[in-house]
Amino acid sequence: MKVIAFGASYSTTSINRQFAHYAATYFRSEDVEVLNLLDYVVPMFTVDVESAKGHPEGAKQFVAKLEEADLLIISMGEHNGSYEAAFKNLFDWASRIKSKTFDQTKMLLLSTSPGSRGGKSVLAQAEERFPRHGAEILASFSLPNFDQNFSSNKGILVDDLRTSFEATIQKVKAKII
Predict the structure, then answer these.
(1) Number of alpha carbons in the 13 Å side-chain half-sphere of residue 176
(2) Domain count, the chain
(3) Coil, strand, or helix at residue 162?
(4) Which of 52, 135, 154, 170 could bridge to 130 as Cys pair (CB 3.0-4.6 Å)?
(5) Contacts of 126 (CB under 8 A, 6+ apart)
């Protein structure tokens, strides 16, 4: 089974990339590929650009990667309560290439932020939107207060949050085996 994980952020220090990578460690490493969206830079989507230049290579490559996945782990970055603009732009291009962008792929949907809501607004938007693009969301989890609750060396630091996260992982595993 191929697991593809990424943080839906273009930040070089993305906490959502860190969180997606952490979630991916719960799966066999030989089955996992963690993407960096900086490898999929695309111009700002407009129908004029699409008409004049077609679909950019970065978007085509991103869609091809999604097609390889049996399970997607996506941790949603949040800006002003919504998708990060750069990810939304990549997603716009991807959906123009393939309307059912996720093609019935199973998905673990995550979010985190430095704040107490942990990206819950963007998580809710993705939970509503992604199934219309073919995602089969198996579970979701939001980690609040990333800087206080997560360590790159130790993972989730708070026992009840770690227990809840691990239960979410087990729920996903039970649905993919």
Answers:
(1) 24
(2) 1
(3) helix
(4) 135
(5) 74, 76, 83, 109, 111
Could you tell me where the DSSP H helices lie in the chain? Answer: 15-24, 47-53, 57-68, 85-97, 120-129, 146-149, 159-176
Whether the per-residue pLDDT at 13 is higher than 90: the answer is: yes
The pLDDT confidence band at residue 29, using thresholds 50, 70 and 90, is confident
Burial annotation 67-84 (CB, 10 A radius, 16+ → b, else e): eebebbbbbbbbeeeebb
Which residue range forms the structural domain that includes residue 52?
Answer: 3-176
The two structure tokens encoding residue 29:
């490493």
Q: What is the pLDDT of residue 166?
A: 98
Q: Which CATH number do you get for residue 49? A: 3.40.50.360
